[in-house]
């Protein structure tokens, strides 16, 4: 049975799309145990699907950028414009399907996805302005009765006190907190424009650190196997 995960937060720019695409790519590679291209899997299509309910369909732009440089996208992609399409995400034989959403908590399609999903992944970047939107998001998710986890994102490398502050805040709210936290790297921010995922990062210290954060996040969430 496909596990359906919804990325959500009222605040824009917290990493819903960036984390969603990279977690999907890494999870697909982890499950397949190979660098991760659809052509390399002989028994079925990729093990992971990314679906977008964001009207801007930012994931679709990212996929087009990947294809534009002649590469294969390491997950399947679907643009969802109608709530009736959501149940079908479980029927394609993927291990995981990740739903990327916009920040509007009043959007009917978001509420339909919240009703359909198994759990909710709530990125929270390490800035003061992310606190209230995250509180609002958690309240919506709690009202729906869905399990969720807070993922701290974009903390400054070399400043662990920043991550500790927001981790303590999340724990103080009684929120479940993912033990793996993702640092701010330009590699992640440039991924959509350059048409690359974490699987394509070059071999250097910064790239290894950036990729390790995504790998650790996937393992902490229980997606796939360790590489």
Automatic annotation (TrEMBL):
Q: Organism, per UniProt? A: Paractinoplanes ovalisporus
InterPro entries annotated for this entry?
DNA_Partitioning_ATPase, P-loop_NTPase
Q: What CDD domains does the record tag this protein with?
A: ParAB_family
Q: What is this protein called?
A: ParA family protein
Q: Please give the superkingdom of this protein's source.
A: Bacteria
What is this organism's lineage?
Bacteria, Bacillati, Actinomycetota, Actinomycetes, Micromonosporales
């Amino acid at each position: 049975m496909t596990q359906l995960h919804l990325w959500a937060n009222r605040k824009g720019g917290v990493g819903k799309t960036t984390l969603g695409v990279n977690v999907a790519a890494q999870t697909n590679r982890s499950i397949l145990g190979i660098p991760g291209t659809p052509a390399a899997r002989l028994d079925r299509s990729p093990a992971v699907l990314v679906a977008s309910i964001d009207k801007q369909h930012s994931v679709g732009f990212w996929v087009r950028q990947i294809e534009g440089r002649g590469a294969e996208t390491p997950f399947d992609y679907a643009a969802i414009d109608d709530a009736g399409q959501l149940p079908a995400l479980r029927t394609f034989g993927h291990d995981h399907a990740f739903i990327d959403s916009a920040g509007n908590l009043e959007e009917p399609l978001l509420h339909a996805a919240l009703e359909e999903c198994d759990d909710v992944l709530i990125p929270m970047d390490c800035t003061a302005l992310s606190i209230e939107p995250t509180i609002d998001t958690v309240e919506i998710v709690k009202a729906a009765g869905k399990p969720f986890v807070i993922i701290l994102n974009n903390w400054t490398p070399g400043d662990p006190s920043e991550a500790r502050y927001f981790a303590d805040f999340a724990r103080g709210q009684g929120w479940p907190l993912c033990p793996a936290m993702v640092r701010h790297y330009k590699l992640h921010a440039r991924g959509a424009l350059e048409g690359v995922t974490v699987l394509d990062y070059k071999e250097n210290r910064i790239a290894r650190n950036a990729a390790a954060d995504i790998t650790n996040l996937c393992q902490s969430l229980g997606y796939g196997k360790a590489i």
